[in-house]
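Weekly sync, protein design subgroup
Attendees: M.S., D.O., the rotation student, P.L. (late)

Item 1: inverse folding check
M.S. brought a backbone from last month's batch and wanted to see whether the design step gives back something sensible before we order anything. D.O. pointed out we never logged the input encoding, so this time it goes straight into the notes. Structure tokens as presented (313 positions):
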């Protein structure tokens, strides 16, 4: 039997933003409740070409499928006229071990899963009256974080801090076409927004912890390998509420890990992001809150299965 292969175009036609948000929310809650199986990721780096690769697998207890995903980020690719990110997902039956389908998504599902997780946890941890959003980074993920968070709450202004004026202005224009008021901002102004999301492959912190205001929320999504670091340890020291999507992963190779190793916080100071999505934990109104998201294989499994169901219909 020939293995079905679905490309990016087919996937985009079959999936809605709401499906992704609902699936990722449920998967994060399942992970927080211990209803998942997630082995440690496999990491590789390619310094000569500023590239990295990670392989993640996951399964939600009782689900009919599990997945194995390859995702790459080669950050010099835009100069070659090709995207930075690529990847594919193999969906496997958890009943028979037979390959069910290959989703040749070019990294699209990873981007969607990351955007959904970041938007959901930012919405859950930010103050109800928070309306200004700052983005550190100007790539696809920055655009998705802003537009998907706007699906969940009103955003008055999007402040964008990027490495180059050209990319920063280009993202402002993209967000303008989607109805968002976006403009460039220097580091200090961006760090002082109500909500901050960092979306970079940085290897050293992109903001100063002292610039983050009381009552603000910060989500870091770019530190998915040991050599990366977006958020300064001092920010975790200031935070009264810290969430991680996977405690062990974030303690191994997340911004949370850098903070723990530096002594800025303790290794048990975090709570599971999925617990916050249940709505049972109150946010201290004047507190700084931080989320460290490293990407969980169980979320890939849940989303790939949901997408395959849509495609097979």
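Designed sequence read out in the meeting:
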């Amino acid at each position: 039997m020939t293995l079905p292969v679905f490309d990016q175009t087919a996937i985009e036609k079959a999936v809605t933003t709401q499906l992704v948000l609902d699936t990722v929310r449920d998967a994060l809650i399942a992970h927080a409740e211990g209803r998942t199986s997630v082995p440690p990721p496999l990491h590789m780096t390619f310094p000569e070409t500023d590239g990295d690769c990670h392989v993640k697998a996951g399964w939600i207890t009782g689900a009919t499928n599990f997945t194995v995903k390859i995702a790459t980020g080669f950050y010099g690719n835009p100069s070659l006229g090709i995207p930075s990110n690529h990847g594919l997902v193999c969906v496997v039956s958890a009943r028979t071990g037979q390959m069910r389908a290959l989703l040749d998504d070019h990294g699209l599902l990873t981007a969607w899963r990351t955007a959904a997780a970041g938007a959901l946890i930012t919405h859950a941890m930010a103050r109800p009256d928070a309306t200004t959003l700052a983005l550190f980074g100007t790539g696809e993920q920055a655009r998705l974080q802003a537009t998907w968070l706007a699906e969940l709450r009103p955003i008055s202004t999007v402040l964008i801090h990027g490495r180059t004026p050209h990319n920063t202005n280009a993202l402002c224009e993209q967000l303008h076409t989607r109805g968002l008021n976006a403009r460039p901002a220097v580091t200090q102004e961006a760090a002082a927004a109500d909500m901050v999301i960092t979306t970079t492959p940085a290897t050293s912190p992109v903001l100063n912890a002292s610039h983050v205001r009381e009552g603000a929320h910060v989500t870091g999504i770019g530190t998915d390998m040991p050599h990366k670091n977006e958020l300064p340890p001092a920010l975790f020291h200031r935070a009264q509420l810290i969430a991680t999507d996977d405690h062990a992963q974030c303690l191994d190779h997340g911004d949370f890990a850098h903070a723990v190793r530096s002594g800025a916080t303790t290794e048990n100071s975090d709570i599971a992001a999925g617990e916050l999505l249940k709505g049972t934990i109150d946010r201290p109104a004047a507190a700084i809150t931080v989320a460290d998201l490293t990407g969980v294989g169980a979320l890939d499994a849940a989303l790939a299965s949901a997408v395959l169901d849509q495609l097979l219909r």
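Discussion: The domain at 5-110+298-312 is CATH 3.30.1780.10 (ornithine cyclodeaminase, domain 1). The longest helix spans residues 108-125.
Action: P.L. to compare against the previous round before Friday.
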